[in-house]
Amino acid sequence: MYAKINPSLTLYADNDSIQSINFKFLLGQFKFCHQEEKTALGLSAFSTPIAKNISFTMQYGNLSCGGALSKLNNPLLSTSTSAFSSGYSKPAAITSYLPGNTSFSNPFRFFLQFGNTFNKKAWIKWTSNYLYSPEEDKNAFSLYLNKNLFQNKIKLSGQYTFGFFPYAENKISSWFTDELYYHDGTHFSSMYQISLDSKNFYTSFLQGIYETPFGNFSHIFRTDNKINTKNFTFIFSALYNPNFKENTIITSSDKTLANCFQSRFSLNYKYRTGNKSPVFVKNGLAAYLNLNLQDTEHNFKLCLGSQITNSLTSITFQSYMNGKIESSNPYSPEVLFESANLKVQNNWYFADFTPGLSASVSFNPSSAYDSLTITSRYSVSLMYIKQAKIKGSASLSLTNKDGIYTSRKLTCSINSTFNIKKLTVILKLTANMNLN
After folding, report:
1. Which residue from 32, 122, 186, 347 lies 20 to 30 Å from 265 (Cα-Cα)?
2. At 5, is the pLDDT very low, low, confident or very high (cuts 50, 70, 90)?
3. What is the pTM of this model?
4. Burial letters for 24-36: b for 16+ Cβ neighbours within 10 Å, e otherwise?
5. Beta partners for residue 394, in sequence order
6. CA 211 to CA 302: how far, in whole Å?
7. Beta bridge partners of 222
8. pLDDT surpassing 80 at residue 178
C-alpha cells in the first residue's frame, strides 16, 4: 500500500491579521502565510502516490524541523512532568514541516528525503534525509533503519544523524569561571540511537558526539526504558554529561550543556471497575532530577495524579511540586521548596458537543520565603462537532501577591472549521481583556 493524496484547499484567517492558504495536490503541497509585513511559504513535492517501493519527498521554504535534529540540538531530558506521561525517546530521522499558520521566524531551508517505508516486502525499512539551511549555514544528514524480528514480536531500530553547524564567539572568560574564550566557527555534531521494542518492554541507548572549539570531541550518553504489564507502566530515563571547561559541549543549536546527571521516571497503575457501565481508573507518579556536577544546587520536580474515565465523562486531578537541593554541605543537604501547583480538569462526551472545565492554582514563594504569589486560572470550553467543528473557550487568570491582586486577565477564543467538499475554511477569533 502507498499514500493516496486527494487534492484539497484549506483557507485560514484570524483577527491578528493572519491569512494562510494550504493547497494539497496529487504530487505535492503549497503553503503560504501572511501577516502585515511578514510572510512564510513552503512547497513540498513527493512521489508516494505513484511509487510503491521507494518514496521521495522534497521541501523548500520557511520549514520547521524536528525529529533527530531536535535531539541533536538538545539531547537533555524534558523537564516537564505529568503523572500520566507516556513519552520516551525513540530513534527517528530528521523531520520537516511546511510553515504553520503563525510560523514566521523560520529561515528558508531545503529538505530531501528518500525511503522505502511503503514497501511492505522490504527486508529492512530505511529512511534517509538531508537538510540544508543557507541562512543558518547548516548541513545535516540522517539515516533511520528498522527491522521486525521474531514474527513482528520485536522491533529493532536505529538512527544516525550528523552535520556541520555554526557556533558564536564566547567572550566570557575569567579565572573564577569554567567558561573559556573561543572564536566563532563551525563544528561537527553527530548522534546515534539504537532501540529494542516489544509489547511489554522497550530500551534504547543514545550517544551524542560534539566537536568543541578546541578540537576535542565530547560525548553525552542517554538511555530510555519502558516496562509495560496489564496494569502497570514504568518508564525510566537517564542522561550523563561528563564534560566541562575545554570539553564543554556546544550542541548543533549553539546551546552550551552543563556538566550534569539527569533522571526521570513515571509509574502508572490502571484498573477497571464495573461491568455494564465500566469505569477506568489510572493513578500516576512522575519525578525529575537534575544533578549539577559542578555546582551545589540541584533541581527536582514531583507530580501525583489520578484520572477517572467512563463513556460519558473524564475527570483528572494532578498536583505538582518544584524544588531544589542545596548540597554545599554534603553531609547535610538542604531541600528547598520553590513552587507548587494543583490542577483539576473535567471533560464530557456527548454525540454532538464536548464541554470541558478546568481550574488550577499555583503557589510561588520568594527565595527568602517572605512573600507569596498565588496564580489561579479557570477555563471553560465547548466543542461542537456535528456539521462543522466549532470550539469556544474562555479563561480567567488571577494573580495575587501577598493578598493584593496584581493581575486579572480574561481570554476568549472561537475556532471554526467548515468543510465544503474539498474546501476547508478555518476561522479564529481571539480577545484578550485586562480587568485590572
Report:
1. 347
2. low
3. 0.89
4. beeebbbbbbebe
5. 380, 412
6. 35
7. 206, 239
8. no
